[in-house]
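Structure ticket #2291
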Amino acid sequence: MKQKANLKSIKRGVPPVNTTDDILRGKSRKSRLARLLPFLGPAFIASVAYMDPGNFATNIQGGAKFGYQLLWVILASNLMAMLIQSLSAKLGIASGHNLAEHCRNEFAKPVVIGMWIISELVAIATDLAEFLGAALGFYLLFGMPLWVAGLITALVTFLILGLERFGFRPLEAVITSFVGIVAICYLFETILDRPDWTNVIYHTFVPQFSGTESVLLATGILGATVMPHVIYLHSALMQDRIVTRNPKQQQLLFRFEMIDVFIAMGLAGLINMAMLIMAASTFFAGGYQQVGTIEEAHRTLIPLLGSAASWVFAISLLASGLSSSSVGTMAGQVIMQGFLHFHIPAWIRRAVTIFPALLVIFLGFEPTRTLVISQVVLSFGLPFAIIPLVMFTSRKDIMGKLVNRKLTTYLASVVAGVIIALNLFLLYQLIFGR
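Resolution: structure written out below.
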């Protein structure tokens, strides 16, 4: 059994089980970084959802209208995301099953079918936003018609997903590279912006609002932070990455994954802050508070910061859209297989989920508005991911030594309640007006 686990781990490009034991006993002669690197990756894939095209729209609007004031919201939402994603990873490590599989095993069949339908709709809505973001990136970068950009996006995402046949490592490497591209782009934008760092630091740690509109935007940033599809996905990425039922090895593996979560989600938080800082330093400071769409932001950057800044913005949007779209398809696979024990090839799922996005493009709907509507759909699926996650990770019969401490369960319950309440509030505001 152990030999099979080792072979499976080697095929996936990760250390075999006995390597984990060697590290636990301090036998490895490698540097700490060299020992850590093979364990990094799952959280970077999950973190893509926290810097997808939907975040571009929200952060740009927040920075353009209120300057640096809502930076603290990004910090708070990122801390929440770290907690939720760490619980998801822990569930996969401790139980060897992902969240969707636990739901299928624990709940009645009608409930499972209902949860699957909602989760599939969420996955499609997520994919719609991310696909549109990538198409917008091609459109802004090369000036091609949006429908042509959509077809190219479809082709590129097919190629990216094709890497999965070689194991998770190549796919993780490509997606992590895209995250790196987004990070470098916003580092460049931040240098060009020349932000007021005193104000940046102050508003990062001091909560503040300026009327109802700022509360609504803060709700949008906080309430739509945790994406239900990557909660399912993160647990699946960890469940058979390194197969071990040894409690000490599981605890060690979870510690490594916590480092992965901290680095990946920390980077995602910094990128989101950089988006808002860019909008605050250019649009708010320059008197362009009404910039409300991604296309407007791209056009306005040219006279304010030069053509290089607009190119960098488009490249970051493209990298974000391509990576998050691929991750969305992976999550859809996990959801179907977990809830129904049924699997379809990734290219078929990709083809099915592409259709709504291409339809939106061909019908001429406004892309940024469509991104916002897709976030509303996401709010419906969030309770069906977070509540079971907190339930399962607090059960010793499922988690063993990795069961939540009482304080962890309490904090996770509070975070879940806050996120769900904010999503419901955002949904109410968008349906019934302000």
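Closing remark: The first helix runs from residue 2 to 11.
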